[in-house]
Specification:
alpha/beta; six-stranded antiparallel sheet; elongated; eight-stranded mixed beta barrel; 23 strands
């Protein structure tokens, strides 16, 4: 090849180098750029084919699957289909292996390989790239090789820069996607895909701020699935999860305006209604649609599940404290709806918060009150048809240091919910033992039996029998002096376990009665299995029994049950002479109530017995 030809080739390659640089600056596709470079080499240097090899670990997405060869090299070739692949030639394979093992350098190495009458001119940049020109008949002249080596080096640099840029872009994109995914996870519920509590808090705070701008108010609906724990326990968590997803789908279908639906907690959903939508008709319609979401059973596999929900509603304005306060109000209203009978939705009222604070205060103070002896026992005598005292029911009372007298109807429920009823129940049992000890040292005309109430949690406690037996032994009293009163609903929680426990208590010598009989699910089917001694007619049936036929009918049925099973019978809550007369005429001979005696201090009770 003449010098003039070499000069022309060099000029051509310099122009290619300029074109490469311009293409890179224009963000041209690297693959197209390389092929244009090779095409120019083929056209200007009279070669058959050109190949650019780059390790796949550096090239990223530059190569297709068919272009990745062995030794983890991929290539861009021109033309795409060639007579032979250089990497399949043993001599070139040796070069590949040699290049991979070389230390990093910025020098271009050149090498000529002849194989079966074909000349392969190799240009390599340490372990980063190999450029091969395939030529028939004769090799490229040395001066041409020297002339184009800088341009090949620039090609390598251009490829490396482009690939590095592509890797950076890919890395940034992956990081951006990861950040978006983390953001999504941080603000959305994994199971339902709905906004989670964190997102709902942010949304509601924004809506509270917008209330000032629009001079309006928004609304929040707090939706809690009833008895969801029972579904999980009986059918499994997988069914429970699918149910939550289906509930979310139904609720999403009714949020067709600007409402924000989210999953606030395990089985609680929230709908935030923006202030722009606030009209009473809109709230009424949306509430109706929420109720309709639970009208039809949910289909999960071959199961049909009936689900109800309790709904609390509250409004928020620019004057609302913050989102947490609004959610608390919705939760309180929902709890009120869950505890109410005959309604599934309740609007928040300010006194609900006062009641909650009071419950929290009483729950916290009960433990201190027990240690400081703020609890005390009173006795309400039980009499026969002649008015003679035959026994007494011991009742707990609480004189709060700051709030004064606290009704048992209020604090007993709190103690049961918190679990404090177990230590409190043991204290009550021990007070009964102390009362019996005093009675044993008091001259009485007849034997007096003491009755105490036993809560369901205490009764079903695994160590219940062992604990009360220990107290009996400690105070050296007779088991037969104590009568245990169990509510009907408590025994029905686990009828088989109740039978087992009552049988064990009877064997020890305890007498047992069913308190509040008739208020639960009274029936012969369960009563015939329970070895109890007495039935207490609930005061709700005794009240105005002389005037109400329905009450008389229930009491007559109860008396028939008592006679059938040879059980004792006592009426509680007796307050008038007419009630006493009516009950006596019906065959009831034992009474407890204000008409005879109000609950009194234990000292007064003992004085009454000895008077």
């Amino acid at each position: 090849m003449s010098n003039s030809f070499a000069n022309l080739a060099t000029l051509e390659l310099v122009s290619i180098q300029y074109e490469i640089t311009r293409s890179l600056n224009a963000n041209a596709d690297l693959r197209s750029l390389c092929r244009r470079y090779m095409e120019t080499c083929i056209r200007r240097l009279s070669i058959k084919a050109a190949y650019l090899y780059i390790p796949t670990q550096m090239a990223g997405d530059l190569f297709t699957n068919t272009e990745v060869s062995h030794h983890d090299w991929g290539r861009v070739s021109m033309p795409s289909v060639t007579v032979c692949y250089p990497d399949q030639i043993s001599a070139i394979n040796h070069i590949f292996n040699q290049v991979l093992s070389q230390p990093a350098t910025e020098q271009i190495e050149t090498q000529l390989i002849e194989h079966s009458g074909t000349f392969y001119q190799l240009f390599s940049l340490s372990n980063q790239a190999i450029y091969i020109l395939e030529r028939n008949d004769s090799p490229l002249p040395l001066q041409v090789i020297n002339a184009i080596t800088p341009a090949v080096k620039d090609l390598f640099y251009a490829c490396r820069a482009s690939l590095q840029h592509s890797q950076v872009v890919n890395e940034v994109e992956k990081r951006k996607q990861a950040e978006q995914q983390l953001t999504y996870i941080a603000f959305h519920d994994e199971l339902t895909g709905l906004p989670n509590r964190t997102r709902l808090i942010n949304v509601l705070n924004q809506q509270i701020e917008l209330c000032a701008q629009y001079d309006n108010s928004g609304a929040l609906m707090f939706i809690d699935l009833d008895n969801f724990r029972d579904i999980n326990d009986s059918l499994g968590h997988q069914v429970g999860d699918e149910l939550l997803c289906q509930v979310a789908q139904r609720l999403q279908q009714i949020c067709i305006k600007q409402e924000i639906l989210g999953r606030f907690s395990g089985n609680a959903f929230v709908i935030v209604c923006p202030n722009q939508l606030m009209q009473q008709q809109y709230i009424d319609e949306l509430l109706l649609h929420v109720h309709q979401c639970f009208d039809e059973n949910y289909k999960i596999g071959n199961r049909s599940i009936d689900v109800n929900a309790s709904i609390g509603l509250t409004y928020f304005t620019a004057n609302s404290c913050d989102a947490y306060t609004v959610y608390m109000q919705g939760d309180l209203a929902m709890s009120k709806a869950k505890a109410s009978t005959g309604t599934n939705s309740v609007f928040y009222q300010q006194d609900m918060e006062k009641q909650t604070r009071r419950r929290y205060l009483l729950d916290a103070d009960m433990r201190t009150a027990l240690a400081q002896n703020d609890f005390f026992m009173v006795a309400q005598p039980q009499v026969n048809q002649h008015g003679d005292i035959i026994g007494a029911e011991l009742l707990i009372r609480w004189q709060h240091a700051e709030l004064g007298f606290i009704s048992p109807d209020e604090f007993i429920g709190i103690a049961e919910k918190s679990g404090f009823i177990i230590p409190l129940g043991e204290w009550i049992f021990e007070q009964a033992c102390l009362c019996i000890t005093r009675l044993q040292h008091t001259p009485l005309k007849q034997h007096i039996k003491v009755a105490i109430n036993v809560s369901a949690k205490q009764f079903y406690q695994a160590e219940f029998i062992e604990r009360i037996s220990g107290l009996i032994s400690k105070h050296k009293i007779k088991v037969s002096d104590i009568e245990l009163e169990l509510t009907e609903s408590a025994m029905l929680e686990d009828i088989q376990l109740a039978v087992t426990k009552i049988t064990a208590l009877k064997q020890i010598g305890f007498e047992l009665s069913i308190d509040d009989f008739g208020t639960g699910y009274s029936s012969l089917s369960y009563l015939k299995h329970l070895p109890v001694d007495k039935i207490k007619i609930d005061k709700s049936f005794v009240s105005l029994i002389d005037k109400r036929e329905d009450s008389r009918a229930i009491v007559e049925a109860t008396m028939l049950i008592a006679r059938t099973f040879k059980l004792g019978l006592i009426a509680e809550g007796v307050e008038t002479a007419a009630e006493v007369a009516t009950l006596s005429n019906m065959g009831c001979n034992e009474f407890q109530g204000y008409y005879f005696h109000k609950p009194m201090a234990l000292n007064d009770f003992i004085s009454l017995l000895t008077a």
